[in-house]
Amino acid sequence: MAIDHIARVKELMPEILASDPSSTHAGTTPGSFASAPEIAAGRAGAKTYSSQDSPGIPKPSNKTAWDFMPTDWTLIEGFEDDYEKAEAWQRPQNYEPSTQLDSARCGIVTVEMQRVADREGHLTATQVRDEVAAGRMVIPANRNHLQHNLDPMAIGRASKTKVNANMGASPVSSGTDEEVEKLKWAERWGADTVMDLSTGGDLDACREAIIQNSTVPIGTVPIYSMIIGRRIEDLDEETILNTLRHQADQGVDYFTIHAGVLHEHLEYVKNRLIGIVSRGGSLLAKWMIHHSLQNPMYTLWEDICDVMRQHDVTFSIGDGLRPGGLADATDIAQLAELSTLGELTERAWRKGIQVMVEGPGHVPLDQIEFNMKVQRTLCHGAPFYVLGPLVTDVFPGYDHITSCIGATNAAWHGASMLCYVTPKEHLGLPKKDDVKQGCVAYKIAAHAADVALGIPGTRDWDDDLTRARAALNWQKHFDLSFDPDTARAYHDEDLDVDTDFCAMCGHDWCSVRISKEIQEFASGKSDDYQWQKAKVSAALSEEQQEILEKRGVLSPEELHRLASKTKKTMGAEEGKASCHSEVSDADKAQMLQIVELGSAD
Amino acid sequence: MAIDHIARVKELMPEILASDPSSTHAGTTPGSFASAPEIAAGRAGAKTYSSQDSPGIPKPSNKTAWDFMPTDWTLIEGFEDDYEKAEAWQRPQNYEPSTQLDSARCGIVTVEMQRVADREGHLTATQVRDEVAAGRMVIPANRNHLQHNLDPMAIGRASKTKVNANMGASPVSSGTDEEVEKLKWAERWGADTVMDLSTGGDLDACREAIIQNSTVPIGTVPIYSMIIGRRIEDLDEETILNTLRHQADQGVDYFTIHAGVLHEHLEYVKNRLIGIVSRGGSLLAKWMIHHSLQNPMYTLWEDICDVMRQHDVTFSIGDGLRPGGLADATDIAQLAELSTLGELTERAWRKGIQVMVEGPGHVPLDQIEFNMKVQRTLCHGAPFYVLGPLVTDVFPGYDHITSCIGATNAAWHGASMLCYVTPKEHLGLPKKDDVKQGCVAYKIAAHAADVALGIPGTRDWDDDLTRARAALNWQKHFDLSFDPDTARAYHDEDLDVDTDFCAMCGHDWCSVRISKEIQEFASGKSDDYQWQKAKVSAALSEEQQEILEKRGVLSPEELHRLASKTKKTMGAEEGKASCHSEVSDADKAQMLQIVELGSAD
């Protein structure tokens, strides 16, 4: 007796068709099982995207930046229950907004907020303003960098997931020109911000060059320059504030400052397998142990805020105690620092400074949701900017992969920006191609998370490419790809004809061709993706040649042929185009011959 | 007034220290928030590993293979409530076990089960037997392949996550020798099984060569050879059964058969963006539409079982209707097929055949848990063997990455084996290096999932490498890496001295060095990982040279130097070793000079 599997599926999962009984799509909706934290939904008018909370996960804070106003602002009587808006507050006499947060609190939509809304697509300028006012979004835009080529962007969970690329010379490797080249390369490969983490060469000149050449926000870790020509033990208040003023003047858009590593946390680091892996964190730990004093960045926080305020530099409060191995993940040291970052966030908001908070390094996959969501508990929704995390320690050389797995999950569970990791992590300094590999892996993570979260419009790209793929329109397939040169080069390596199969399966077994030929199926029949006849692909561009040279699969002769092919050369290579089986249509065989001998579009 | 962040953390998360109040480790335990499905826990005596169920996720089936016994076995009176064991059953007269499942049902621990237990480490042979008897584990071991070099292994959620590598020639590319080379290469890079998916060349000779050379189980998709010299429309019962007999005789360990694509499912494929992307699925769909008959694989299932039984070939029931784009994921067609695979699983178990079930291709990250867990509802715990899934469609050239993100999640949520995807997916046929890249990405996914699930012993490897890294013992760090040559080559590209920093940060900023030097920290002080002095690394091996050549970062001269270096050559390169800042110890500077001029171990 036949089982009705269709009926069983519909019965087993009734919610599936609740919205559209005639739909053939059973699927859970994007971001399904999602419950946006109540704090965000509805309040600022913008939907914050989130994965559903697993049982046992800590709940979000019920506070926002509106709960940490500057002490000289007054809540107007009557607004006690409705204070998360500009109209509820009395500002001090002669108040001048300086930062994006200031403006948002005044109800002002700045030029930068408008630009952000244009770029995000699914957010209005007012929603952007309200997200900034709530502290859930930052627009890192130093006024001095705005004088150059900075194109304003935002980081925050209501917006698309962002990616940061790190670069910078070390004393052992690289220099200013190479770093500017990496900057442009990172911009090309989709980095949304770039950090100059130089510890060697001419730090000042490199930083200036990067800021002046960059359309994306630039971040730095100022403590690195504080120890040039100086031992860490000799770091003092004057050096700290002067360095910050200098870099702020230069136009740095955000500073990573490790103010959350407190003296009292250090005993919880003692038994870790790999101690402190943050450069800034380890330097400040060393300072504190030497002086038996509290972290100067923590004690000077309000003075540092005053420096930040001048040009609107954003905080990226550093995770000096992030875990550097799975064994050290989610320990008291890490979480106590995160709690401190929450305190520092509150203090920064009281000074009107924009804040994002940094997060961990190496975390087993099953602990990522907890790691992300405990941050919204402790830091009141401030954007979370996470490095990876790596989900295993044992694959150096491939840490762009081990970490982008964690990063995709981290963004889905709440992180707003992902700091990339390259294949050189743990081994040496990233080169230009490592920058690209890191960017690609992280654009994958960011985009996949946006789709999972259901951010409007993000899956349109995937669907368009799927239509092109279904139609076997190779050119359109590659044009829509994130890296068209690589896709085209890999295809042409085996088969330099665009036709209704490829080298993976050959003609007879190509499921995409078969699906397209089945009249009843819509597959491959989208109007905008049709093509007329098979054609020889164009000669390889230089970039595509280089890609294939590095793969080392083709001989120099084969590479040369692809690079310089003409009809005549194609016709001579009988073996290459003999891709039809003995049961291929006479029509098909004829078509291939036409391709070989006839017109090449 | 200072906030006690340590106290706040302990209070906020009380369960953290429940097990050990003196622990500095807050962390959630591996596989935390995990609730192994009740069906598995306790019953067979082995713990099945699982992520915690999100709210709304379908519950597991409460049946196992013990509920689908051959109809000529009788349940002994009195065992109605305790029938999941050999003693509960009366076998037919003169019964001879043929498959691993048969033996397990008879209470027999076979040689292969013992070998599996040795390889798994955390499972006893009895537990292996019981997992096989319950249908939750398969040991794909064709008796004919056992005559050659097959080393028995198991696939099932109680065991470590496994990885399959696909290879095979197409009509357009490759041949037997190249495919055997890929096989050995895949074995080297950790593939646990290999599938020969050839559609071109001499299919028979290739398959024979692969089986005879392979220490891992070999899978095939027999329908491919069924259409050599034949149109799909002409496929008949005789061809199907003869082909299966022939391949079973050759020693194939598991068959992918797309018996779950039913005629009545096809209308649910109509509106998909990319129809049917499975070769076998599309061929059978074409057959059914042409003949207006039910899928012959489905109708002939019991006859096929009889063929499988002879040499103990395992089923891998194909996912012919898997989604080929995010837009098609989790639709009725896919789920109805999965329901059918459940029915086919039951029918195969009744014939004593081992079964695993195949799963989807392209699934948004947020739908993966649902996709994995609905399978345990429908297929009673049979091992789930999934391809990817890809979490975005728009990165062809990088689909080993887009899919290993999904695969890590899939394994954590229940999949037992992951079918790899290479950088050539959607574009052409994988080459040798693509096989390696696919294997590495999937070994990452499998290992990261094992750690997340808390499979005993799996994180020891990560912890050992972290200790070596913390001690700055580079040689041990690389020896413990999954790919030591790549790790060593990337390190030496910038700095060919093993010392207490690397080229990423240089001496003064190396956090790992600083952590190790802080007396109070245990970091880097593990006895087994200490080293005496910095040393020049050995000359590059040929493989390491090739890795750096392909990167294209170093000039031929620099490569030559690394490949052939001697003390004299090192001493001459003053610029290369000037990695100490102006504040480096005189001791350090001297040490480097000793390295340059002195002994090279």
Produce the secondary structure layout.
The structure is a homodimer of 601-residue chains.
Chain A lengths: L4 H8 L61 E2 L13 E2 L9 H6 L5 H10 L4 H10 L2 E2 L4 H4 L8 E2 L5 E6 L8 H13 L4 E4 L6 H11 L4 E3 L2 H4 L10 H14 L3 E4 L21 H13 L4 H4 L1 H11 L2 E4 L14 H19 L4 E5 L8 H11 L5 E4 L11 H14 L4 E3 L12 H22 L6 H11 L3 H6 L4 H11 L2 E2 L12 H7 L17 E2 L5 H10 L4 H9 L2 H6 L13 H12 L4
Parallel strand pairs in A: 5-6, 5-12, 6-7, 7-8, 8-9, 9-10, 10-11, 11-12
Antiparallel strand pairs in A: 1-2, 3-4, 13-14
Helix pairs in contact in A: 3-4, 6-7, 6-16, 9-12, 14-15, 15-16, 19-21, 21-22
Question: What's this model, at a glance?
Answer:
Two copies of one chain form a homodimer. By secondary structure, the first copy, chain A, is α/β, with parallel strands linked by helices.
For this entry, what is the oligomeric state of its chains? homodimer
Number of domains of chain A: 2
Q: What is Rg of chain A?
A: 27 Å
CATH topology heading of the largest domain in chain A:
TIM Barrel
Name the CATH homologous superfamily of the largest domain in chain A.
Answer: Radical SAM ThiC family, central domain
Strand segment count of chain A: 14
- Globular, elongated, flat, extended or rod-shaped: what is the shape of chain A? globular
CATH architecture of the largest domain in chain A: Alpha-Beta Barrel
Q: Which structural class do you get from the secondary structure elements of chain A?
A: alpha/beta
How much of the sequence lies in strands of chain A comes to 5-15%
Helix content of chain A: 40-55%
Considering residues with a beta carbon less than 8 A from a beta carbon on another chain, report the largest interface and each chain's count: A-B, 174 and 174 residues
For the record, the CATH class of the largest domain in chain A is Alpha Beta
Q: Biggest sheet of chain A, strands in spatial order?
A: 5-6-7-8-9-10-11-12
Unreliable spans of chain A are 30-46, 567-590, 593-601
Output mean pLDDT of chain A: 88
- Terminal residue distance of chain A: 57 Å
